[in-house]
Each structure stands twice: as structure tokens, then as C-alpha cells.
């Protein structure tokens, strides 16, 4: 398109011609800030980016997800920049401009833009004039994440420049319709609106990135390069790869049966015992769909960040076998650990260090192949900022949801809504679980589920009836486990030590981090000078320490532990992290009692591999730590201790009742019967049991321990759902219902400002020192990524009551941290608390700046983040 010269534009009396209005500023090499690209050019760039994303990232059978004119609607997102307050704001940001010096802008006051959502609100009002009844106006209005509240203003509001400026916006809209040869789509379906909203925002980010910053640089040939730089590359799938080609071993009958049932987009549930290869079955099914053009990528969703990290290596290996090695998608989006920080992806300011979408968890939703938490997927249907970007990111993909049994009523309700939405977006949803109960499955896939065999494959392909298929069970690893119930911790610890002395590898799983830390300390003290090694794994280690810790212990307890196991006996203590998506094999298990489905997961870590060499005298058995009969008789809830705050007391009671007379269980034969007995319809109960069941269903309405029941949780979860608009932040999304939120804490030895170098110094507890420039202009892209990696490697999530006092965004900005880590939404102001907190740890491990001076908080490499005496 020929660039229009200002002399060719007819000057007007009451408004600037739209061709002369800048969309952005641009900084010259000497630091001078000038007007950047025009609104017209920026809109054209964004429209063409959207057009290319649809063309290269969505198979032909999926292009109809987007209405005709979707790229035009993306282009129209910034027509609201043709307004006096926005133009005045841009001009004030340029060098040498005197406020309100232009005659057309003499009364413009940019600070008032917040009253109507800024230029996005003007865009929304403009499109509402044209298409007043559907969702089209909202696509333009919410492209910054939130839906503006116009407070009754129309496109001709005085604040928007009245009729003269509205006419210029109208001329711009006509020009864009002419260029894209389309009418503005009238979107009436909410899922389509959400999808196009995501396309629009992502296209705006890419269209605002480095390839298009310089207004003197021709943009027309840069669209493809910009998409490559942002990671939006087409998957080049190698054809005709067998299961054996991909995984280096032959499939079992369960895996073969599952792949045979995959017919295209739909919902598929695979229930099979731990260690039978459900992950490989799901990935091979995903490969078949990618090869056939029935999917455009994979998102592997797990319950927690820790469990998702365990799948990275497996998905990376899978990618190396199914993608053409020359494919651009084969490298950037599957980097393990902290390596992803150094990816030179360009998603504009939002996707750069310091931006809200630099976070790997968020960016993964947009990647062709990614592992992440289920929370990012859940936000695709939730009332949170940029939720629609997740909708767009997941559309058309194979979404694998693992460990689905671990979600409670609240999260399960949101998950049900997500699955329904994904079905409308031509996704293939694969649900994996070893211990799913029938009620949960009916919620996920429909009331037609009746088959109670195990293992079981349940399929609901799009527009097809529900099918239940039981694969041959002769692949199952038959394991008999002796079960003992114990209540004496001291005797149990003594037994663990004696077994470890004989060379056994012991696994001890507690239900809370604090209990795991206390158990580790006690066992380490008791095993001093015995040669027995003790280890601890939980979620409150910084990534650097956690990776070192887990690599060592998973290496020993994993299938390749081999010779290392024979060197000495060991006791590995941990939390629920050890029961999900981690391949460890213990000779003897000690586990704090928990609900039946979770208990089977723990038992699945026992005698997991037939080839593992075990000490003489080792038997496949587990000791379950349970309350004494007297404790249960006095007070059931108190009898379960801290476990009653992690799991529902009634479910704990029902589980204990089911297991009370079991001295041995058989895997997998007993999985389905015991889960059914635990979660079956409640028989007639009375007394304390009836009270616990009432609390499960209806909650506790009053008092310090008040909590919602299952009925209220469903409604609370429904209240978080939305498909149009957003009010809540996506930084601490309400994807889980918990009274115990977590906050991110940066663990440092010290931090200080060096005024002479205009930088700050951060020192990690391992002694590494980094310098952070206070101004972003002094940071190269590679430096900013290196610094962001440092922050992430030294950050841990803890409960707010364990964390130091929150600091304001402004305080942390004074250290330059806003240039490398997202501190919070700028529109909330510098006096808002920052999203990240800082803990300064002295040489003894004590957190010296904790706001609760009477308590003793520590961070140590062997213990993680902990409170003394708990």
C-alpha cells in the first residue's frame, strides 16, 4: 500500500484527519521521542497479522471457526485512537511538545480516559453504533484484557470528540473495509466472540512488536517474519510414525485400544492403573490427529506447576520424534527448566520481561506444543483478564488433562464448563486418571456413563453417541500390597530406620508441607551416623534447589536408579508432589491416611518396576498412618489433624471405613471397587457422621471455621464463569477454592540500590550477584531475559501468613524490578501492593524481614521455606 503524504490530506476545521493520527511513539537513537506509526498503518498491520495467523496456524477444517471478516475486526480494534484525548496523550509523550498546544486538542485531558476505558472504549462505542445487538463491539472493546464501562457514552460523546472526530473514525472504518474487502462480521455466538477477541489481542501484540516499531521501515513484507519471531509457526509433522518409532517400545493393548477409539474432536476418558502408560497413549493419539490435520497443537494440562514440569522431558522427547527437525516449532517452545527464558520470542511489550505475558505458564497456552497447569486452561472460560486469549490459544488443539481425579467440586465445575467450550472449538479433550469415580466422570462427559469395568475407555466424539470400551486387562501389572494401619509415629519411624539399614528405599508421604518438614528433621536426627540418607521433596523450595533435589532423588528412586539403590538404605520424605506425574519406586511405603483415590496414587509408587533389584527380606507392603479408635470416638475431625484441612473430613472418614478391614489389596483389581465404596450414595447415617456429611454438602455457615459445602461451591464456581467481559485479575485467578492463597516470594541474601551506577544489586542465598539497571533503556533483550531467569530461579510460592510484608509496586520499581518481572497492573497505581514479595535471608537461614517478628521463619536448601516449631 502506498504511503499517503500529509500534503495529500485535506485539512479540516474541527478534527485531525485520521491519516495523520499517530498510534504510538518511537524513540530515535539519540533518545528523542517522536510520533510513531499512524493509526491507519497499525490497524492494517494488525489485520494482516490476524489473517496470516488463521492461514498458517489453523488447518483447513478449522478455518470456519472464524467468521468472514475476522481479520477486519482485528484491524478495527484501534479505531478509537482517533479521539482527542488519545492524540493529546501521544503528543505529550513526544519530545518538546507543549500540552494542549494543538488547536484541535486545546481542551483534551488524557487523564480522563480511565473513565471510559481509553481508546478501547471509544472503539467499542463506534462499533456498537454499527452493530448494536451482537458481540462484535466487545471484541474491539476488550482487546486490553478488560471490557470497558462506557457509562452510557455513545460514539458522538463530547469526550470522544463529538461529531467531527466520529466522522474521521467512520472514514477510517470505511478505508479498512475497502482494504480487507469485507463487511464487519456480526458475531452472535459467544464462543466465536471469545475466539476472535483472542485473535485480535494477540495480533495487536505482534503488530506492536519490534518488527513494526520504526515508522520509516516498510512493514508489508514483515508479517511472516513477525509471526516466526513470536513463535506462531506451523507444525511440520513427520508422517507414518508408529508408536514404537516415537517411544522406542511396543504399545500394550490398552494403548492400542485407546488410539483406535480416537475419531477426531470430542471427549475421551482413559481410566487405567498407575504405570500402565496413559501418557504415551494420549500423546500417540494426539500425534495421529496432528498427522491427519484434525488438530493444530497439544496442550498438556496438569494439576500443579510442579507436576507439569515433570512432563516437560517426555513431551520434548515426543516432539523430537514427530516434528521435522528443520521445523521452527521443534525448538523454541519445549525448552526445559529455565532455558525458556532465553527464547528470543517477540510478543511485544506484554510478552517481554516485565510484561504480564512473559510468564511461561501464560505463554505456553499460545505455543503449538506445551505443558502447563490446568489453571491456564480453566481461565479460558472464566471472568479474568485476557481469559479469551486462553480460549484462542486452546482452540483446535488436543487438550490432555491429567490427574483429573484430584480436582474438587469447585474446580471440577469450572472444568466441566471448559470441556463444553473446547468441544465447540473443535478441540480433542483427552482425560487421564487412574482413580476417577463415576460421579466425576458423569459430570465430565455426560450421564450416559454406566460401564463399571476397569480399565475403561469412554469416548464422546463430536456428534456421535457415547461409547464405553474395556481394553484387554492382561497388560495390567498385577500387584498385591500388604496393608497395615499404624498410629504410633515413633514406632513407625523406628521401623523405617530398621528397613533402611537393611538397604531398603523408603518413601514417607505426609499431607502438609509442615508435617513433611518436621518428619524429615526428626528422621535425619535419628539416623545420624548410621549411613542412612534422608531426603525431602515438597513445593516450597526455590526452583534451583528443587531441581537439584529432585534430580538426585528421582534418579535414585526412578527406574534407572539401578546400582545407586544398593549403596545404602534411604528415607525420602515428601508431600502430594510424590504421588502425581513422577516415576519413583519404593521398597516400602509409609503414608499419612488420605482419600481412597489419592491413596491408590501413593500405592502406585510402591514396587512400580518389576526389574528393580530389592534387598533380601523386602516385601510389597505399606503402613498407613491413621487415627486411633479412641481419637475417632472423641472427635472425628480432630482425629485427622491437619489432614482435615487438606481433605474433607467426611471423605476421610468414608475412606477409612472402607480400608479399615483391608489387610491386603490387589492392583488394579481393587481400584474400582474401593473407590465406588468410598463415593457411593450415602447410606443412612446419624450423629457425628451425619454432621460431617451435612458439612460436606452444605458447609459450615457460621464461626471461625465457616466454609462452603459442595452445593455452594458449585454456585461460587459458576459465578466465576463468563464468556464476555472480564473483571478479575489473571495473576491470582480463582481457579481453586481455598482459604489458603499463595503468594510469590523472592528469596535473597540482600538487595540494595547503587546510586552511583544507577542500578540495584541483588544477591541470591547461593551468593550469586546481579546488577539491575534502574532504567529499561540500559537493558538489552538478552540481559533482561537473564535477569528474569535469576528472579524465577529464586522465587517460591508460600501462604501469605508465611510471607514477608507486601511492598508497593512503587517501592520495588525503585530497584528496577519492573523491568524484568511483572509487579502488577500499572492502571492500579504505584500504591498497590506488588504481586511479588521479597524475603531477605541471613547466613543462618532466618528470614530477617518477616512482618511477624515473634515467629521464626527460615529458608534453607535442605528444608525449603519453613516456620520453626510447626
Structure description:
The structure is a single chain. This protein is of the alpha/beta class and 870 residues long. The strands form seven sheets. A seven-stranded mixed sheet has the order 5-4-6-7-3-8-9, sandwiched between helices. The chain has a seven-stranded mixed sheet with strand order 12-13-11-14-15-10-16, with helices on both faces. Strands 23-19-24 form a three-stranded mixed sheet. Strand 6 (398-401), helix 16 (409-424) and strand 7 form a beta-alpha-beta unit. The N and C termini lie far apart (69 Å). Residues 332-337 have low confidence and may be disordered.
Percent in helix: 25-40%
What is the C-alpha radius of gyration, as a whole number of Å?
A: 29 Å
Write the CATH architecture name of the largest domain.
Answer: 3-Layer(aba) Sandwich
- What's the overall average pLDDT, rounded? 87
Summing up helix and strand content along with how strands pair, one would put the structural category as alpha/beta
Largest sheet: 7 strands, mixed
- What would CATH call the class of the largest domain? Alpha Beta
Side by side, the strands of the main sheet go 5-4-6-7-3-8-9
| CATH homologous superfamily classification of the largest domain | P-loop containing nucleotide triphosphate hydrolases
Work out the number of β strands. 26
For the record, give the distance between the C-alpha atoms at the N and C termini, rounded to a whole number. Answer: 69 Å
User: What is the CATH topology of the largest domain?
Assistant: Rossmann fold
Kindly estimate the percentage of residues that lie in beta strands according to DSSP. Answer: 5-15%
The global form is globular
Spans with pLDDT under 50 lasting ≥5 residues?
A: 332-337
| Tally of individual helices | 30
